[in-house]
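Listing S7. Sequence submitted for prediction.
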Amino acid sequence: MHVRLFCLAGNENDQKKFKADRSLCSPSRVLHIRQIPSDATKAEIISLVIPFGKVTNFLRIKRKCQALLEMDSEEAAIALVNYCNYFVPHLHSQPVYIQFSKHTELKIASSPYRARTQTSLQAVNATQPGNQAVPGAYAVEGGHCPYQGSVLRIIVENLHYPVTIEVLYQIFSKFGSVLRIVIFTRNNQFQALLQYADPMNAYYAKMNLDGQSIYGMDCTLHIDFSKLGTLKVKYNNERRRDFTRLGLPLGDGQPPLELPMAPACGTQNFIIPSYRGAPGFAPAMAFTPVSSYSFPVVPAPLGSLAPTSAVPSPGALPAVPANSVLLVSNLNPEAITPHGLFILFGMYGDVYRVKIMFKKKSNALVQMADATQAQLAMGHLNGQKLYGRVIHATLSKHHIIQLPPEGQKGNDLTKDYSNSPLHRFRKSGSKSFQNIFPPSDTLRLSNIPPSATVEDMENLFENTGSTVKAFRFIQKDCRMALIQLGSVEEAFHALIALHNHDLGEKHHLRISFSKCTI
């Protein structure tokens, strides 16, 4: 096999040298992957990067534990490398390092290897349905690629021991933020639907857990992607749970479950799953021992998936990861501002601080009021298009955004909004908690002055560059309205530009996403 256009450095896997080498390389769609475990397969290596985009070429240098991989665009490669600045990817519990190659294109001379590589990659390129798509490793090998999304369907076979919402949460939350779980029986089989905040989380959970058993050879998990885009949960009880809306009742006329949230530092009375970034970018599973639960009698030794000490009793809610700071990457540095991120992420929680990175203005940190709001914002905004770029939102390794000293260069890139009057969720019982909806091209407008006309409102939004497709007032006094714009991205731009806009007569426009269409 003859290979052109690359020259690998020596096998120096020290992380400090890796960071130094990476800083010398200009962005390129060719990536250099180091310290690959010798027993890792081609499919597993490629599975690390396909959540960020399509792979067009691949070459493995097995004797050096390295590989070269070419993405379909430089933008996808940049997003991946930026992500790896914060979360080191792991294969077989061993860290691997990804950096830009010094080459702009990967060319392999004609050979059977090249033909096999292109054949295996065609399945990914042909079936990847979009930015949210995360094809499984079997797709890399040329197999069938099912529907991809953030909702998993789980079938449990050999159900000889109890499997509850709490058990599923404890196991699956290792791979990302779990938003909702519903369990049920169909065709005499125990099944569950589980929704993650991010399709990438669902992909890595399926890759790692499909075919595994919770207790030895019992309670075997069979996992596939559901065709549902989201789960709708009206009640919190032992059969269904919405971890983003803890105040839901047990059922019709029943009071809510007592589901206390863990404080920021955690508490020994709750299971607090370890979370160190995107799944697949973390070490192998390990569960935090919990001493406050009662246990059923289970066989010993337990399988690798089993909770370390116990199966939680129904009604005991595992706490969500305590980090409230999000890393937002692949932003448009020419358009984004701290205020824009404050308004956008403020749709799903109270934003306390925003920091745009001085050296990498396409990355930013957003600190929410608490971990639940951070998960909510991440679940709704990750993968959305803003100012021409698909943004990525993940939990940051930082737990707080530090304010820079006065007079420091780039001081205007960090803003403190902890006392902002524009917070939507500060008041307990606020109606804002009942009006949290996914991003939509239809916006709900309120606090409109009585003198405003349809033409006035349409002109206001058109001046921001939006295309107004429909508009109607929804109250007789014309203080509330719905407006449909050309796309969700246009709705984002209009929201950032016009929320709290002064309409005169002591009226400041309030904007939120609508669950209705016109």
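Caption to Listing S7: primary sequence and predicted structure tokens for the chain studied. The CA atoms of residues 53 and 76 lie 6 Å apart. The longest strand covers residues 178-186.
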